[in-house]
Design brief:
The protein has a domain of 84 residues. Strand 2 and strand 3 form a beta hairpin. The chain has a two-stranded antiparallel ribbon with strand order 1-4. The chain has a two-stranded antiparallel sheet with strand order 2-3. It has 5 helices and 4 strands; from the N terminus they run ααββββααα. By secondary structure, the protein is mainly α.
Length: 135
């Protein structure tokens, strides 16, 4: 073939064969099958993460109705949650779902306000932030 030949592959453009297209399709399908379970596992782990109320460095303190941490015995404040709340429980509470078993409904709302105040570096923040991510 000479440089002036108009039938060279560079001038015609690349046209993959049917076999090449089938191979690419198979590779793409296996990628989707591989990634989908990973997303499912991530969603499950987010719902199983835990948020202590209050954080361990504030253990023994109570939670006021506005979500702030106050000393024990503060009027209108609620005792700490008897156990860390799971991501699933917090997600339900954020969407006005049922109060988790063993929690007073008013205390649960105070706990949600406390969780809403969490910031980076606070125990439970990563779990709460994951719940805020769109799926």
């Amino acid at each position: 073939m000479s440089a002036s030949d108009d039938s060279s592959p560079a001038k015609e453009g690349f046209a993959p064969s049917r076999r090449t297209m089938l191979a690419l399709g198979a590779a793409a399908a296996s990628t989707v099958v591989t990634i989908r379970p990973a997303f499912a596992n991530t969603a499950v782990s987010v719902l199983n993460c835990q948020i202590p109320v209050p954080s361990p460095d504030q253990a023994g303190n109570y939670i006021a109705a506005d979500g702030s941490v106050v000393p024990p015995g503060t009027p209108g404040a609620f005792p700490p949650a008897p156990r860390p709340l799971t991501g699933e429980e917090v997600k339900a509470l954020l969407h006005n779902g049922p109060t988790p078993a063993g929690l007073d409904a008013d205390a649960a709302q105070a706990y949600v306000k406390y969780i809403g105040r969490l910031h980076a570096g606070t125990s439970g923040f990563t779990c709460f932030a994951s719940l805020q991510m769109p799926r």
